[in-house]
Amino acid sequence: MNWKFVKIMSDNSLRKITLFFVVGFSLFISCNNEHCDEVINTPLRIDLYKYSDTSQKATPKALIIQGIGTDSILDFSQESQINLPLNKNSNKSEYLIALMYDKEEWNTLKFITDNIFVDNATNDTLEVEKKVGDFYFTNGFNSAIYLSGNIDSVSYIYYTPLFDTLSIAYYNQNEFVSAECGCLSSQMLLNVEFKRDKIGDIELLHTLINNQNNEAQVKVFLNYY
User: Where are the domains of the chain?
Assistant: First the structure.
C-alpha cells in the first residue's frame, strides 16, 4: 500500500518537473526572440566615392556582392554605402564583388530564350544560371554580363563587369549582455584590401566596429568614376 502511494507521487512529481522545464525553456526562447532591443552584430560600413572627385559619393549602376562560403548575394546597386556582415566565428571575411561602371566598350547579344543568349561577335552560347538585379551569371560568380537595354526586338547591348575580392581581417571582441541578448559582438579592423586591385583605393577611417558607432569605417574610391 505504501509502495503504491510512493510510486504515484513519483509519477506526478516527474510530470510536474517535466512540465516546469518545458514551460521554462519556452519562456527562455520567447525572451531571446522578442525582448532583446540590443543590436548584437554590427556590419562593416563602407562609403563609396568617385576616384575622379574624392569629395563626391559614387552610386554604381550595378554592384553585386557575395560572401565567400555563403549562398547569399547582396545587391547594392544605385547605393553609395555598403553594409557587410562579418563572420564573428572567424578573424577574416572575404567577399566576391561584381561592379558595373560607365564605359564605351560594349557588345551585342542575340536573345534566344529567357535563359540562353548568343554573343553576336563570337557566336558563343551563354546559358544563364542565375539573375541578380541586372546581372546575368553564366558560369559561377566570376562569369556575368550586364544588360543595359535592347537594341531591337532580339538583341541587347551587354557589358562585362569588373570582378574583385574584398578581404577583411579583424579581431573579434565578445561581451556578455544578458540571457535574452547573448553576447555583444564588436571587431577591431586589422586590414581591408582588394586582392586584384581593380575596383578602387581603400582608406581606413575607424578601426572599431560596434553598435555605438554609426559612421562608416572605410572609404573606397572607385576607379572609372
Answer: 1-35, 44-101+163-222, 107-160
What does each C-alpha distance from 84 to 13, 44, 47, 54, 113 come to in angstroms?
Answer: 51, 5, 11, 22, 35
Return the SS3 of 96. Answer: strand
Stretch (H or E) spanning 67: strand 62-67
Burial 168-187 (b: 16+ CB within 10 A, else e): bbbeeeeeeeeeebeebbbb
Closest to 61 in 3D by CA, of 37, 78, 48: 78
pLDDT value at position 36?
A: 63
pTM for this prediction: 0.74
Residues in Cβ contact with 86 at an 8 Å cutoff, skipping those fewer than 6 apart: 41, 43, 44, 93, 168, 170, 187, 209
Tens-place pLDDT, residues 188-207: 999 999 998 779 999 999 99
Q: How far apart are the first and last CA of the chain?
A: 91
Phi, psi of 62 (to 5 degrees): -150, 125
Spatial neighbors of 138 by CB under 8 A, at least 6 apart, are 126, 127, 128, 129, 144, 145
pLDDT at 205: 94
